[in-house]
């Protein structure tokens, strides 16, 4: 069963497809729903960031929701997760089906957080500064 309602703003979700992977995007707030491992698959596919229409600064207000967030797929409890790398991202992950909700703008940052060349480049820069 596909999720149909946004767990953050309650609006309708539309189904999108990129490289044979289907995800859902909220028609109102543009947040993205990824079934288990879909975000992992899409982060390595060039151009997949076009699915993310949002501005992370504008949509960060959803990170401060005090209500419990229910999974749009199985209605299980969503846990707030924190990813720290180039960008700090708060996102939600379902404890039952392991789906992931990223607010608008966060998938673009999620992809950038996992760019190996970015990590290597930053490590080299840090070593260069230490040697000076």
TrEMBL record:
Residues 5-44, 70-112 form the Transcription factor zinc-finger domain. InterPro entries: TF_Znf. This is Transcription factor zinc-finger domain-containing protein. The lineage of its organism: Bacteria, Bacillati, Cyanobacteriota, Cyanophyceae, Oscillatoriophycideae.
């Amino acid at each position: 069963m596909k999720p149909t309602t946004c767990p953050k703003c309650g609006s309708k979700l539309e189904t999108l497809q990129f490289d044979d992977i289907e995800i859902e995007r909220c028609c109102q707030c543009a947040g993205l729903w990824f079934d288990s491992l879909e975000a992992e698959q899409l982060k390595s596919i060039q151009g997949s960031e076009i699915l993310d229409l949002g501005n992370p600064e504008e949509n960060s207000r959803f990170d401060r929701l005090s209500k419990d967030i229910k999974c749009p797929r199985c209605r299980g409890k969503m846990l707030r997760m924190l990813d720290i790398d180039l960008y700090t991202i708060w996102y939600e992950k379902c404890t039952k089906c392991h789906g992931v909700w990223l607010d608008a703008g966060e998938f673009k940052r999620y992809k950038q957080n996992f760019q190996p060349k970015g990590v290597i480049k930053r490590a080299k820069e840090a070593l260069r500064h230490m040697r000076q």
